[in-house]
Predict the structure of Deoxyguanosinetriphosphate triphosphohydrolase-like protein.
Amino acid sequence: MTLAPYASDPARSRGREFAMENAVARGPRSAYQRDRDRIIHSIAFRRLRYKTQVFIAPDGDHYRVRLTHSLEVAQIARVIARILGLDEDLTEALALAHDIGHPPFGHAGEDALDAALHKAGGFDHNAHTLRTLMRLDSPYCEHDGLNLTWETLEGLAKHNGPVLEPNWALSELDAAYGLELNTHASLEAQVAALSDDIAYDNHDIDDGLRAGFLDLDELLAHPFVAGQWAEVERRYPGVPRDRQLAELIRTQIGVMVNDLVAQTQANLAGVGSVEEVRAAGRPLVAFSPEVAEGERAFKRFMYDKLYYHPEQLETARRARAVLAELYSAYSQETVLMEESWIDTMPRYEPERSRHIADYIAGMTDRFAISCHEQIYGRTPEGLSNV
């Protein structure tokens, strides 16, 4: 496939942080294909299987977790990248890796670690994604981290836009391997970011209804989905409701993807290089104003009805307590940690506290619960509410 002039070309990659002098060629892969494969084969990626998406440690087999969510984002992102003539492998790598920095229990876990590190610079899951891939997950003999290309690291750092006030973790990594944090990222990164929104806007509907947290009639009356629902009922009268809802979600994804592609193609008129993309001063991958406004309103609805549901807030409170108690235990008794983490424990602050947070952030939901039970002799009740 011929790349568009504004795409990221793997043949023009800025390279990797560490030289690969003794690297063995393993097949005719581009630099971005190798990045994608390194991410897929990493321990950090596998751990996403047991990390919270919407619901903590769900008992049901059909609820999404960070891993399945990341796969869904990658599927949507790759479709968009192909239509726009972007590098699909870089787009897929960014989509697959974008949530690797999430600790157990999702945003509740992030809040707990941020509070625990309030004297050591705080915790941010986006920065921790870079820290994990560049320093912590280290399967290679020659260097720390996965040694991904500059474009992949840049995209992960800036997929939500320029970072004008990076936290300590991202600042350290940027100092070691400058990521030009004050500019916008590539189109591939921008596509991955909005594919994330498309995925969870729609797939969280499915999980919210399955859990009984969303009221069906209230959902279907919302302006962002009401028109598509009317069309589904017109086309498939008498079909079981669960199949109609699945069709609604597919249709809604298609509407958002088509709108994004059309608006982005209009925004790219006259853009002739990836350098112009970075210097544009605004994201060029975007929804139309009408869809963007509707999507924001729908997000507010989902926060009110699902993410901030009273039962969800109570579960998040319990989850924060679990991680706070784990952090406290490891801070007082480092021998409770795994041996390899004890052996590499820094002697001084703030590195010592950050090391403990690295250990906790790498846990899955169920491992964090198990560690808490081993230390405190009890399993926290009410952590899984579905």
User: Anything to note?
Assistant: The radius of gyration is 22 Å. Residues 7 and 86 are 5 Å apart (CA to CA).
